[in-house]
Design a protein that fits this description.
Layout (H helix, E strand, L loop, with lengths): L1 E6 L8 H9 L10 E7 L2 E3 L5 E3 L2 E7 L8 H5 L5 E3 L5 E3 L9 H5 L6 E2 L6 E2 L5 H5 L5 H5 L5 E5 H8 L19 E4 L13 E2 L2 H4 L6
Parallel strand pairs: 1-11
Antiparallel strand pairs: 1-10, 2-5, 2-12, 3-4, 6-7, 8-9
Length: 210
């Protein structure tokens, strides 16, 4: 199985992976296959002596399609347009897609969305053409902090260790068994993360034109 590894402790939220994906796929303004989630939280406390303490934190998550082992988008597609290709990556057959949007509703990661021009589902395809040629996805190659990696899951485990995809605010990985492994930052691995929130909803909304 092919999948992504993401080192949350290295990501600075620079969005180079996001921009590289947009450029490589020639996406119009407002369309993104990979998105950066900014997750923030914390508060401050008056110590009563003229000083203040803070528990503020911020971390970033680079997220695209996770090419799940149990993809809900594939299960609900009425035409078979959403499917796994020969590489095991979840892709859309545009000759069969009718733009019903069931995949968009079903995916807990909001990876597929309906292209407002084509009126069909579109999403990260794992750079299948590059992978078939022995290369890595463009987002992985573009990351300046080497926070992203891609390959066979067993090889990723050998290189980075064993991790799951359970990091807030992402849904429980038991839902679709995503082929995504996330190494958490200290902030993401702390109890503080429970009190955080996504602060860039307007940016990551993926169904609009500009």
């Amino acid at each position: 199985m092919l999948g992504f590894f993401f080192d949350n402790s290295r990501c600075t939220g620079c969005r180079t992976c996001e921009m590289a994906c947009v450029d490589y796929n020639d996406l119009p303004a407002g369309r993104k296959f990979r998105r950066i989630i900014d997750y923030e939280g914390g508060t401050w406390t008056d110590n009563g002596d003229g000083t203040f303490s803070t528990s503020a934190f911020c971390y970033h998550i680079s997220l695209a399609c996770n090419h799940c082992a149990n993809p809900e988008c594939v299960h609900v597609c009425p035409t078979g347009a959403m499917h796994k290709n020969d590489l095991g990556l979840v892709v859309v057959n545009n000759e069969r897609c009718v733009g019903c949007g069931y995949c968009t509703i079903a995916c807990p990661y909001h990876a597929p969305s309906i292209d407002p021009i084509l009126r069909q589902s579109s999403k990260c395809h794992g750079c299948s053409d590059r992978v078939a040629a022995g290369k890595r996805p463009i987002c992985v190659e573009a990351c300046p902090l080497r926070a992203l990696d891609f390959g066979e899951v067993d090889d990723l485990i050998a290189r980075h260790g064993t991790f799951d995809a359970n990091i807030l605010p992402l849904p429980d990985s038991k839902l679709t068994s995503p082929n995504l492994m996330v190494k958490k930052s200290p902030a993401a691995d702390s109890e503080m993360a429970e009190e955080g929130s996504v602060v860039n909803w307007l940016e990551i909304e993926n169904n609009h034109e500009e």
